[in-house]
Fold:
Amino acid sequence: MTAPANNNNDLWPQRWKSFSSNSVRFYHFYANWLISISWRRFAVLSIALVALVGMVHDIPPFTFRYTEQVETPRKRVVVPKLPAAPKAPKSPQAPVAPTAPESPTASIGDVQINIGKDGIKITPRSAAAVASAASGAASAADGAEIDIRLPPGAAREAVREAMAQAKREIAEAIRQEQENLRERRSELEQAAREAEQAHREAQAAIDELAREQDDEPTVRTRTRRWGIGDFMLQLSWAWVLASAIIKYTYKGRMQAEVKAAQATETAEAESLKRQVVEARMAAMQAQVEPHFLFNTLASIDHLIETDPARASTMQKNLIALLRASMPSMREATGNGTNGVRDLGRELAVIRPYLEILKVRMEERLVTDIQVPDGLLSAEFPPMMIQTLVENAIKHGLEPKAEGGSLTLKAEIFHGKLQITVADTGLGFGKAATAGTGVGLANIRERLQLLYGPRATLTVAENQPSGTVVTVTVPYKTVEGTPA
Structure:
């Protein structure tokens, strides 16, 4: 029952792995295409992409428009309750004018005036009315009477006339006040009527709003827009920006990879060149050593019968040569050009070799080795001096009838180790057995691979005859060997 679930669990990692590998391949393909075009073409294509997206992002299939019916419910409004309409205020009571100007007793409003022979007496009709009317007078108290006494001997008629005149003036003032009160009352009544009319209109509007709230919701048509077109323009700009970043960064990465590949190819070429040089040296050594060995053995066999002492000396030198040269050949062919050793081990091969040749050539060969003991620990490529010595004897001294001398010299010159092999033979390229120069070419290649421009090989004529070959390398002692 659990097998299908396990299959699904195993399938998802495979799908993810496939998707990831396809994405990586697409990324590299797109990045390689980006760096293959110029920045000018990239700018033109980017502008064309943005313009195309701007034209098509509002049309199908990128964007759709559709309509729908939408019910809009009415928003219920809380209808306030209006207060009652204000009523017209009552107009204040107008004062009543006095009626009997000739009577000694008169009433003006709430005040009664009595005129007697002794004077004038003003009495309020009620204490409350007197308090209301006389609140502003400084000379009248609450509910008190005002008694104005005439001086003795005053004429009654004069008082009457003054009283009548005052009463007339008061009556005129009262009439004027009554007219003002009537006008005020009419204005108040007009304002009350207008307020009542506004109240009725507001109540009618509230009633209409309440009726509308009871109606059904409103149905309206709405057009809506949907699609990916809204994001296409932003997406196109993001794509252009990401492409520019990829184009800039991926180009640098590709250049770094190209440089690394070139460096790898150069290293491989150098390694292959070293292998070719070593193969040439091995082939040359395979040709030289057997030939030299056979000749030496033949000379020993001949000397055994004619001169046993010399034969014994040659045999000992041959054994010393083989003991010193066999490890050298293994190091040179096994470790490549990186295998270096001290100059003393090189001389351990050269000395018995020259002694064997001196036995064979007798007095026709004179050797001189000038190597200070302090330079025996100096670093020097193996088998290089042996090749120079062999060339000097084979192509310079041996073809010469009277022979000659060979000088091997080591010294420090301008801070570098300088090895010189000089002979007094026929000269470079003048012997009938002159070689093709492969040995010297191999030495130059080895020096170039080991030291670059810091090492040199020069070939010059010797005086009065012969050849001088000089090899100059950086001076360095071999590790583990005392200087």
About this structure: The chain has three domains: 3-67+225-259, 105-205, 266-474.
